[in-house]
Amino acid sequence: MVGVGIEIPDIEAFILNEYIPAKPLDSNLEVDFTLRKQAKSEKCGQRRCGDILKFPFAQTTGTLTAASIKESKVLVDADKATETKRVVEITLESDDFDYEPGDTIGLLPSNAPEVVEQLLKRLGLIDQADTICQIKLALKCAKKSAKVPAHIPDSTCPREIFTHCLALSGVLQKQFLSALAGYTSDTKERSFLACLSSKQATAHYSSLILERGLRFTDILELCASCQPPLAFLVEHLPRLLPRPYSIANSPLESGSQELRIIYSVLSPTAGVTTSMLEAKCRQQEQPAKVFIYPRLTNTFRYTEEDLCSNQILIAVGTGLSPFLAFLAHKEHHQKQQQQPVKGQTWLYVGAKTPQAILKRNKLLAWQQSSVLQRLRMCHSRGESPTYVQQLLQEDAEELIKLLLKPDTVLYVCADGAKISTSIASGLGLCLQNVLHLDETEATQQLKELRQQGKYREDLWL
Fold first, then answer.
1. I need a labelling partner for 25 at 20 to 30 A (CA). Which of 199, 250, 437, 461 fits?
2. Which residues contact 173 (CB under 8 A, 6 or more apart)?
3. pLDDT in tens, 313-362
4. What gap in Å lies between CA 70 and CA 288, rounded to an integer?
5. What is the C-alpha to C-alpha distance for residues 435 and 440, in angstroms, rounded to an integer?
6. 433-448: per-residue pLDDT in tens?
């Protein structure tokens, strides 16, 4: 169904001779299909759950806003040879969505219709797919603290649940796998799931679930006799959560009614949200809509107060998105004032290839017009690969001198795992070389810069 590229020729190879299955999850809910009708509503899924449902990092409850997709365009073409992902920018229109450069939105996803349809058929629910039902506590509830998840509407149907409420591609926990074994009739398939849940098969769990990305729908494909009930899945599959995106433009460009986001597409296994956006961008009959909300603001912003300060911006790949908003904001202030803004702005940006650097020509134009005082670009593929941390070390003397000025802020937007760690290590080496510090002292200096608000990060996974 979903496991593109995941090939397991024989599940028997993953069954140990001796193992102890994990304790299976309980089942505390049941589905009532006897409801006569459902209140008419233009809303669907989690949007019908009212103020009791909170969205992660939302500024307030009940803040979902409809936004129309005005335009989409490809910024970077996919290139298998260099492992470059296709990158797309979409422009959204929404009424008075106030924001500043550096702000982020949460975008509510939905599972692909074809995936949901396959799942309904696979679980024998296709005839009841659109039948109104209610999820409620079972009469013999095994757990006193059990409750119906807040992200499930009071009256709903299986199609709505699988489309808008449940994450079908989350990481499967061992207790969940153990419970699935109890809903599996084939002996070999049941043993495979039970073993995979055990402590003794940790290596197999790491290989299949954590590394190769085996998901719930893949399990159903591998284990044809596995037939978990809808109530169990509602209780134990995780909630389908909004995806955060940085706003990639300034409100000064076209007013607060318009905002842009940038996403990359991992082919052939695109994520749930990017798959939804791809489908909506292909929709031609009428402007497609998505639902968004403003996330809590933090220090990773660029406001009028920052115009006279200095900024050192460091980004890799689509991490450039918020900085496009920063630079557009500065450019528009310069045009309004008809003179250069006082603060210095340096940008270090890396990508797989020169062609993969987002809006490269625009960056060069900003350098020409003194929006950018220094622009350093590098690429990690080709005959002479270079990384951002190398550029930092080449500029170490001037970089540290600018960084240590009272009115300078350093911003990093990158992968929260390896890349951001490498950038921090590169900055540490710059401090060691310029200020003659040892590694411990340089690490402490970076820690202090973070505490002072001079080293700000926007990290993504």
1. 461
2. none
3. 999 999 999 999 999 999 998 888 777 778 899 999 999 999 999 999 99
4. 8
5. 13
6. 999 999 999 999 999 9
At which residue do the structure tokens 């690429």 appear? Answer: 379
Asked whether 152 and 234 are in contact (CB, 8 A), the reply is yes
C-alpha dihedral sign at 297, 298, 299, 300? negative
Is residue 14 within 8 A of residue 204, CB to CB? The reply is yes
Q: Which residues contact 169 (CB under 8 A, 6 or more apart)?
A: 2, 215, 216, 217, 271, 272
